[in-house]
Design a protein that fits this description.
This protein folds into 2 domains: about 220 residues, 3-Layer(aba) Sandwich (Rossmann fold); about 80 residues, 2-Layer Sandwich (Alpha-Beta Plaits), CATH 3.30.70.940. It is globular, with a radius of gyration of 23 Å. Helix 3 runs parallel beside helix 5. It is about 35% helix and about 25% strand. By secondary structure, the chain is an alpha/beta fold.
Length: about 325
């Protein structure tokens, strides 16, 4: 039995906007499943439907074998959802927040205290017990918010862009927390994120959406293999230098598929080794300074860009 199974799901709003267009996904129990897509791809709409806040126009969806149409109340008792805005009460202490959450789900007091103690230890919150919640950093507030949602011991945890706006240290702490939720608690994690590195590091399965429909689903490795070819990566000291070099390459070399990302240019060619030599020669002839050129494996970023068309040929990130 899948944790989540969606078949031909359609959602059309009264204003005519079709947010979901025959979506099909399957999420195994106990995995971290990451949903990727551009803004407007339908990710938030899907979460609203799966958490029973909204109804689809047509199609079917089950969570733990329960229908969103007929067993919504039973589904709500098995899931939790941490939205982009944290739901903690800054007037309460850390423990008061967690115990209040347990009462909402009618968790017996003794069990709630034991669960709270375990979550505080597992998620590294002990050091913050003596400080007011209002003084916590954004990353710690997010960790507490997720800990609150784990007080109900959900079978499925939905997380909508949980690391947005965090610094790299806070993001890495969150990654460790999500791995513990999967490994220590056996919870299925349904995650949306804009950080492709995050999806690559965390996910058992990744699904890329576009215009309300899935376009590929598989492990991060399977998605990387989708391109079936390596790429040429040209590195520069600054983004501006890379941009200037890209203009020269576009004028002098027939690039089949290329994009500019930060301080790097990525190029697809039919023959990467010949392409590397030709591009290297061109850069030297044009006296364009660069810090490195190499043949590299495609990343999840490359797959996402290719499949969603987020950046047109020669597009700049």
């Amino acid at each position: 039995m899948f944790a989540i199974h969606v078949e031909n799901l359609v959602k059309q709003y009264k204003n005519g906007v079709q947010a979901l267009n025959g979506l099909n996904i399957s999420v195994a129990q106990g995995e971290i499943f990451t949903l990727l897509g551009q803004n407007g791809a339908g990710k938030s709409t899907l979460i609203n439907i799966l958490t029973t806040y909204s109804s689809p126009t047509s199609g079917n969806a089950t969570l733990l074998g329960k229908s969103i149409y007929k067993e919504a109340a039973a589904i709500r008792s098995c899931i939790a959802c941490a939205a982009q805005r944290v739901s903690i009460d800054e007037h309460l202490s850390l423990t008061e927040n967690m115990m209040f959450q347990s009462r909402l789900y009618k968790v017996p007091t003794a069990e709630a205290k034991q669960r709270m103690s375990n979550l505080i230890e597992q998620f590294g919150l002990s050091r913050y017990l003596n400080y007011p919640v209002s003084s916590y950093s954004g990353g710690v507030k997010r960790r507490l918010d997720i800990a609150l949602n784990m007080m109900s011991n959900p079978k499925i945890l939905f997380l909508d862009e949980p690391t947005t706006g965090m610094d790299i240290q806070s993001r890495m702490a969150m990654w460790d927390m999500l791995k513990k939720i999967k490994n220590e608690f056996g919870t299925t994690v349904f995650l949306t994120t804009h950080y492709l590195e995050e999806a690559d590091r965390l996910s058992d399965t990744v699904c890329i959406m576009k215009e309300g429909k899935e376009i590929i689903q598989g492990t991060p490795g399977e998605l990387r293999n989708y391109l079936q070819q390596d790429m040429i990566k040209i590195a520069f000291e600054t983004r501006n230098m890379a941009s200037v070099a890209f203009e020269h390459l576009a004028l002098c070399y027939p690039l089949q598929s290329s994009n500019l990302r930060n301080e790097n240019i990525f190029v697809d060619t039919n023959d990467n080794r010949k392409g590397l030599l030709r591009i290297n020669r061109l850069l030297l002839e044009q006296e364009i300074s660069f810090t490195g050129i190499e043949i590299t494996k495609p990343s999840l970023d490359d797959v996402f860009i290719r499949l969603t068309g987020e950046f047109e040929k020669g597009g700049v990130v």
